[in-house]
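Reopening this one. Same input as before:
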Amino acid sequence: MLAFDLSAEGPLEELTVRGTGRPLEAGAGEDFAGQVTARIRPFLSQPIGELVAELSGIDPAAWSKGAPQAALELRAELQPLGDSPDSFGGRLTVV
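Same output, byte for byte:
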């Protein structure tokens, strides 16, 4: 399991949310670290204005029995596509 510590700042119409992630228990993805930044506009039909997430130390074997062991890094940069609450575009990089 993972835990994220989040903070928000700015006016309620457009909040900037920042956070860091870490493993909740030792042994479950011990090297995992994460950072996320998002612009949230809660009163619009598409509340997520932008999201950037950087995750490191992702080991598939820690999450799924029989998966290969690895130390992956992931970066996602997402922006909404129009006003639809479930359509995003952007870039996903996995190393």
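So the earlier flakiness isn't reproducible anymore. For the record, The chain has one domain: 2-94.
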